[in-house]
Amino acid sequence: MDNINKSSEESSDKNIQNKNSLKESSDENIKSEISLTESSGKNIQNEHLLLLISVFFISVCGISYELLFGTISSYLIGDTIFQFSITIGVFMSAMGLGSYLSRYIEHNLLDNFVAIEIWVAMAGGFSAFILFFAFAYTEVYSFFMYGLLIIIGSLIGIEIPVVTRIIQEYGTLKITLARVLSLDYLGALVASIGFPLLFLPHFGLMESAFFFGLLNIAVTAANIIFFYKKLIFRKKLIIWTSITGILLMTGLIFSFKIISFAESAIYEEDIIYVLQTKYQRIVLTKWKEEVNLFLDGNLQFCSIDEYRYHETLVHPAMTLAPSRENILVLGGGDGLALREILKYNDVKKVKLVDIDPDMIKLCSTYSIIASLNKNSLKDQKLEYIPQDAWTFMKDTDEFFDVIIVDLPDPGNEKLSKLYSSTFYQIVRHHLARGGIMVVQSTSTFFSTNTFWCIYNTIEKAGFNVKAIHTLVPSFGDWGFVLASNEIFDINRCKVKVPVKYLNEETIKGLFVFSEDMKWRETQINTLDNSIITYYYNEDWSKWQENEQ
Question: Which of the following is catalytic: 79, 354, 406, 409?
Answer without folding.
Answer: 406
